[in-house]
Fold this sequence. Notes:
Layout: H1 12-38, H2 41-53, E1 62-63, H3 65-72, H4 76-89, E2 92-96, E3 101-104, H5 108-113, H6 122-131, H7 135-144, H8 150-159
Amino acid sequence: xxxxxxxxxxxxxxxxxxxxxxxxxxxxxxxxxxxxxxxxxxxxxxxxxxxxxxxxxxxxxxxxxxxxxxxxxxxxxxxxxxxxxxxxxxxxxxxxxxxxxxxxxxxxxxxxxxxxxxxxxxxxxxxxxxxxxxxxxxxxxxxxxxxxxxxxxxxxxxxx
Length: 160
């Protein structure tokens, strides 16, 4: 007998809902991270953490949307929307509502901001973001039995 026979079976509706919600958050997290990386937001947060920490280990960084907009010369409405998406995806948390302060969620600094940390996965997540425009070339390889030249893809990537 199968070991899961005694467990109540999940309906297809519940399973689809679970996949859709988790997939939605995962996809938006990749988009949010990719945009933040390309706009220099994560580099800014890294530099900010280094200038303010001294020798104290860093667990989170506090910032505001207004600060990011001003320091990086970005449109505040877009930065505010980006920050809200980060809150929804669980990368950020509200630090102080009266000052509109946001902080990175636990372990986000180590995983996505500090490129020297042993658990940094930003490059891996960034690769998913950067590969999106090349899906057509990859699909062509599947359908036409064409070998995809990594040099060609890399050159296209550098053009963008």
